[in-house]
Fold each of these.
Amino acid sequence: MDTNKLARDVKFLKAYALTMTLVPAVALLCAFGKPDKPVRFQEISVERLNLVERDGTVKMIMANKARFPQGVTIDGKHTDYPRTNPGMLFYNDKGEECGGLIFGGQQDKDGKVSAGGHFSLDRFGQDQVVALTYQQQGQGYTAGLTFNDAPDESMTAVQERYKNATAEEKQQAQREGKLGLQPRVYMGTTRSRSSALVLNDQRGSNRVMLIANTEQSTLDFKDAQGRVRLTIGVDSHNQPVLRCFDEAGKETRPAGL
């Protein structure tokens, strides 16, 4: 046996194997090294998709339940809490969450449904000020659009400011719109299948409520203490309704009549 020839053949085979390994790898790297060149896929399956700017700043994340981001980071401080749904998150130029979409649904062994979907947009550095929500537990469900007020300070600053506050101080801050969300408008359905329009003042106190269903349609106006002072509508007998109430809730004669 020619040992020199055998050694040359082994070297040739090693070089050939190395070349066949490197060429596809280099070609693949070159393909991904051209970000402006469009690539078309007929179908792609991923567990998580990150949309980023060229500098790496995250703009949007789509992920399944297992790979969905947990908690939120504002002003560089992370607040951890579990998220158990798949969905999509939006991010501002600071790389902070500014809205998103989550969804899910399941049915237990007894046939009871637990499902929902939630799309929201956040105030800069704060929580959701616009939310479109469907939520179901069993047979009853609600679906509606909500508008909220959020504090001027970021979530991180608010948490730091009130971390040692008493319950009374937190309640006062809530009433002043400095802590948490203040619900302002709700338009949607109720669990009893009525249509509803709810309008609140800057403190989150309900001032106007419109309810419509097969029995009646009524519009209530409330004072600053939440007491109904005027009701307008059509009752269950299809008759018009105009009722006024004093501060004690006693019906009175409308002014001017």
Amino acid sequence: MSDDAFTILLYLGAAWLAGSLIGLERSFHGRPAGFRTHALVCAASALLMLVSTHQAQWVDPSLPMSSIRADPTRMAQGIMTGIGFLGAGVIFKEGLTVHGLTTAASIWMTSALGILFGVGFMFPAVVATVATLLTLSLFRRVESLMPSELFADHELCYPIDAVEEEDQVRRMITEHGCKVRTMSYRLSNNGQLFHYYMVLQTHDRKNIARLATHLRQSSTILEYHLSPTGG
């Protein structure tokens, strides 16, 4: 095996391994872009960079070397622009919550790692791979220990002849450690049902569970919807 072939194999293998490790972490946590996606993104980025840096091996040998213009930075720009479409595909909005941002960022980072491996910039590539794995795994635990605000979409449905006043509803929610950030109203079923729509804020997920237990025991509430959107 020639030195160039070994170098290409080393760079591609290192990129594939780095992408696989990051993808394993994403797959373990059930994310939409996991092991195979990250492995392919990293390997593809490295492969495209190798195409740019090894032009002399695939262009017409009859051409003079002076006519070959290798510009890996332009290839890197194209890769990072294109990978944005793949990252955007894993981002979706549900209620007040945006899902997939971390996975999109990991795909973008994986592509950057592939570029580094593809040009043979091994030291920063390895360091960045380790840093990425630590960020995805260790920082998850740090985030869980940090105090943060939790929001929830909340809906209450009453029969029109047994609707609780807004002040009563707000007081009930406050008693369970939550705040009403926004509130709107709706009639349905030809005016037979009255709905309160709210966004709740709290600092403890257990407050949401306690509120749900209270609502479940209510004799006047026909239906309720309580969906945490963060935390």
